[in-house]
Amino acid sequence: MFSAIANLKLSIFLSLLFILFCNVSETSSEVNTKPKCKKPFIDILISPVFANNETNILELIWSLEDFVPGTMLILMNSKTKKAEYEYKLTNPTGFVSTNISYKITNTTYGFKKQALDYYVELKASASGPVICSSNMETNPTWMQDNAAVLSKLSIREMFIPGTHDSGASTEEDDNGEQRVQKYVMTQDETILNQFIFGIRSVDLRIAYYSVKSNDSSKLWLNHGVQRICPFSTIVNQIKKFMENTKEIVTLDLHQFPVGFSLHSPGVHPHDILVEYLKAELGQFIAPASLTWNAKLEEFWKLNKTLIIAYNDEKTQQKYSDILWLPITQKWANAQDIQTMKKYMDHEFNQPPAGPWSAMTELTATGMGILTDEMKGLRQMACSVNKDVTMWFLGDDWGKRAHIVACDFFRETSIVKTAILWNLRRAKNTTCDI
Questions:
Q1: Which helix (DSSP H) or strand (DSSP E) does residue 273 occupy?
Q2: What are 3-53's pLDDT values in tens digits?
Q3: Cα 380 from chain centre
Q4: Which GO molecular-function terms appear in the entry (predicted)?
Q5: DSSP SS3 for 12
Q6: Which domains occur in the chain, in start order?
């Protein structure tokens, strides 16, 4: 009797062990055989840092799901079709400086997609076949180009590539590397060129320099208290882009650092600003009644493709027909990349419900500017930009991002990354193939 019971217990134990082994083996097999479904990602970046009397150093970035050691990245000159730099990959993701200075001879671009001076190829070996390639290029019409796929997405569901302090461009003020100015300038491209390269959300800080009169010519584009250029310069560039494309663009009017709170009783800077925007851009302004849940096709149907988000509650309510609710900007206010990453990890785990922007740049402190400890915004951007691209290529942030704002955006792949994720979202997948 005892022997029979013991044998029965042993039989049950072995059966349970077999079932457990099979389940573990099956799970392990599923992990090991998980299909690879993302296309190789490679791109060409431009460093904003001035070093050794060289500017615009080209950098290469890659992210390969199906990685084979020894795979080659080859930087090609578009005109000569000759290789100018070769790099053997040792990791599935990374970035490398080529030490090649990009001589930009033309800063005027058209409203059709244009391949520029370089492209990069991915090869199994230096002499092997091309696996994929990627152009240095403009992207003036990427929303319209992909309208058949993207039109059913709402603007809130979109991954929107943006810039921070977008008007603080060295194209508008060429004193960018003076002692104080290097903590002011955040971009090397004009607002118009930012749009042409694919940026679709710009962060604008408006000042008003008159305490006694109502005059739109007193409106300026600022970075903090520092004047950059007359606001009319920026508005004219916005108008030119809107006249030539059907792209949906967001103006994030987020701060009003000078002149909007201290003025004479009869002066109304917010009214001056809004009336000026209506007069110059009114034909393009999307009605706020659309809301952030409106699909792209709804903007195109109305032929109204300019969103003006306004960060002043009283003014937004007064002009609620054309001024959209403000965009929440999420700032780490960090001086190092680890702190910024930790902060953003938390935000992406619990993202805001409404429109919001991940401000992916380091913040200089007053003492840091005084001592020049952080070497200026160019160096600060260079220390995070390539990592920012990697973070958003990944699923954790990429599938949750809304607006992402960068400094010196051409050292990121934020535009191509956003396009990639929007195509995935429209198909309700995290895969490309």
A1: helix 269-281
A2: 444 454 445 444 444 333 334 333 333 344 566 899 999 999 999 998 777
A3: 16
A4: phosphoric diester hydrolase activity
A5: helix
A6: 41-137 (2.60.40), 142-426 (3.20.20.190)
